[in-house]
Give the backbone structure.
Amino acid sequence: MTRVLSCIQPTGDVHLGNFLGALRPWVEGQHEKDAFHGIVDLHALTITEQPDVVGQATLRLGAVLFAVGLDPDVATVFVQSHVTEHSQLGWIMECQVSFGELSRMTQFKDKASKREHEFISAGLFTYPALQAADILLYDTDEVPVGEDQRQHVEITRDIAIRFNHRFGDTFVLPKAVMPKAGARVMDLQDPSSKMSKSAGSDTGLISLMEDPADIMKKFKRAVTDSETEVRYDREAKPGVSNLLEILSACTGEAPQDLATRYTQYGPLKTDTGEAVVELLRPIQARYNELMADRGELQALLRKGAGKAREVAAATLERAQAHLGLLPA
Ligand code: TYM
């Protein structure tokens, strides 16, 4: 059975880009594939400077993952820090990746430039090594992610090839897989940037738990362009094309076909907003139910960690043996 792994950070609110680009494909894949999904709290530490934030965010994210439809009896949903093998293999991965390779990561360059006068942790720089550990620990075949994570999956592959070459066949080579629509949801106010938790303002971001009236307001105010023609063309018409892609991700129809149905921007904005509200309505209700029983939520995550550890421990042991570390 194909093994799938993908993870999400407990930072900021989960947004529509996370959902369409990643969470929904995870849910769709859980029955045909052997699915592992992590809440990567150690990755969130790269930008955490306050106590009592990450744990709460981790629990809320757990509720989101079950609310969108991951079934704890089917998929393995776990918290990264509960499976200590991630940190252990993470260090080994840091020793297999070069300073030059890490320097070329666009996500690091982006994030570091946004924090220009702030503290930039070394963890922000070595982040892809820990991500490689996340993926390689599970003998992962496929990594379902949004477009922005492609480079991180490629470097993971490069690291695995290097390790296997140096120390003998150890890791499965993973590949990134992306959804047809929704792999790159753009900011509604700045359609040249991806929808992101770290954007300066949230007027272009739709949070998964957002109030329906606010969602409609944000879609109605979405930036389009000064023309009037509804056409799917990402280069020339990024705002309109983003709306068409979001609508396409909600309805399953191709953005090009949807475009032929509209002669004005207004109705496209309203229909897209309504489609998103309807998509999120049951998720919001389920989330509220799950958050009402935090003990049960934690128990589900503990169960996931137990299953994850079984796989991760065997892979770490194999890597340590191939490296030739003296057994304890
Ligand atoms: P994160 O937490 O930023 O995002 C989680 C997932 O959401 C996708 N995504 C998007 N998809 C479409 N449009 C957008 N605007 C958009 N924004 C985010 C991301 O591609 C991702 O799939 N480094 C990762 C977390 C990670 C990971 C891993 C992922 C750590 N270890 C191992 C896969 C495998 C991250 O920061 O994702």
